[in-house]
Automatic annotation (TrEMBL):
PANTHER family: PROTEASE PRSW. The keyword Ubl conjugation does not apply. It holds the Pfam family PrsW-protease. It comes from Tessaracoccus flavus. InterPro entries: PrsW. One of its GO terms (molecular function) is peptidase activity. This is Membrane proteinase PrsW, cleaves anti-sigma factor RsiW, M82 family.
Length: 397
């Protein structure tokens, strides 16, 4: 039996409650900026009677909550950090919507052409500013990139940015007129035709960005750009449908948007299932290296068991939650490394793999104490696999 090449000393029990370091400054900065922008966008409610405001805010908030519920369900196996999730929503509602509103207003002021503003300015600026969250907040820092590690993540972050933008835009349009009688057809029309248009468009771009992140060569830039073109084109079709095709244009745009909507839902469900399958596939190798035990692997492979374990953790709930998050990220990262050609593994991902393996080992003493109060879980037996340079325990090859 030979040891895997260690990259750092094995962790000691003194660090048993260590938590993964999370990005703090950047997401909090954009939460603050986004909150200010969202507040500015909501100033319109101060100029309308309460019935008008409620008629606009309530239905679109319900639509928002349904969208958030779906994304939360989609993200069940590896939930995103709250700071990033809130930042994504507020980026859409505050930063992207505010910048887009200013640019569109300037374009309209210069051209005096409302149709041109809707067909050309709006798709270009809105899809660009929404996509910037993924680049500025997630992909510009190492910690941000560590949170953007699966297709599901791309769909969730893209969806949250789009939901934020859509929520503030829906309310703004509904309250752009003075009377409830004028607002009602606008509200109904937007509920029927554009409820989830912006989340769909931003998710398309996010999928392209994820495809670029996982590509080599020209695909790293080409795939995000192509996805952005698709989103801009669909947005252009929606805003210009009547101008382009007359009465049939609305139906054509609606069919195209419905196809995109259903495709993204199917893609999301399949990605969620693939995440679970990858986690189950990687856990036995993690047992083999001594990072987790067969019993821990058994309940980590079962979502209801995870929930029950958290419910029994008591004062150690935070540590157990982090342990679950770290083992899940480690399993998904291992799957990503496995899929790469030999010799092409980025140093940053290998370092992250080692850090996550350390964190899991740091937290195991506390987890073992929680497990002592629980029983009845199935076990997953060890199976060899690559260690990717991370330190191993007694089960190491």
């Amino acid at each position: 039996m030979t040891d895997a090449p260690p990259t750092r000393p094995h962790p000691t029990l003194d660090a048993a409650v260590q938590h993964k370091r999370q990005a703090l400054v950047l997401p909090l900065l954009f939460i603050a900026v986004g909150a200010i922008g969202t507040a500015l966008g909501m100033l319109v409610v101060l100029h309308r009677p309460l019935p008008n405001t409620l008629a606009a805010v309530v239905p679109f908030t319900v639509i928002l909550l349904i969208g958030v519920w779906f994304l939360n369900w989609l993200d069940r196996w590896e939930p995103e950090p709250p700071r990033f999730a809130i930042g994504a929503f507020l980026w859409g509602a505050g930063v992207s919507a505010l910048i887009s509103g200013v640019v569109n207003s300037l374009y309209l002021g210069i051209t005096q052409d409302l149709s041109a503003t809707a067909m050309y300015s709006a798709p270009l600026i809105e899809e660009s500013t929404k996509a910037l969250f993924l680049y500025v907040v997630l992909l510009s820092t190492r910690r941000g990139r560590a949170e953007f590690n699966s297709l599901t993540d791309a769909l969730v972050y893209g969806g949250l940015v789009g939901l934020g933008f859509a929520w503030i835009e829906h309310i703004g349009y509904a309250l752009s007129v003075e009377t409830l009688e004028e607002s009602t057809p606008i509200i109904i029309g937007r509920i029927v035709l554009t409820s989830y248009l912006h989340p769909v468009l931003t998710m398309i771009v996010a999928v392209g960005i994820w495809a670029g992140v996982t590509s080599r060569g020209a695909g790293r830039r080409l795939r995000p750009f192509m996805a952005w073109l698709v989103a801009v084109g669909l947005h252009f079709l929606h805003n210009g449908s009547y101008e382009l095709f007359g009465p049939w244009g609305i139906a054509i745009a609606a069919v195209a948007e419905f196809v995109a909507f259903v495709t993204l839902i199917v893609l999301g469900v399949r990605s969620r299932r693939a995440e679970r399958a990858e986690i189950v596939r990687q856990l036995p190798a993690m047992v083999h290296f001594g990072w987790i035990t067969p019993l821990e692997a058994g309940w980590l492979a079962d979502a209801p068991a995870r929930k029950r374990m958290l419910g029994s953790a008591g004062a150690q709930r935070r540590t157990l939650h982090d342990f679950i998050q770290n083992t899940t990220e480690l399993a998904l990262l291992r799957g990503r490394l496995d899929a790469m050609p030999p010799g092409s593994h980025p140093i940053e991902l290998l370092q992250l793999h080692g850090e996550l393996a350390d964190l899991v080992a740091h937290q195991r003493p506390v987890v073992q104490g929680i497990l002592a109060r629980s029983n009845g879980w199935h076990t997953l037996e060890a199976r060899p696999g690559p260690s990717w340079g991370a330190p191993t325990g007694d089960g190491g090859p």
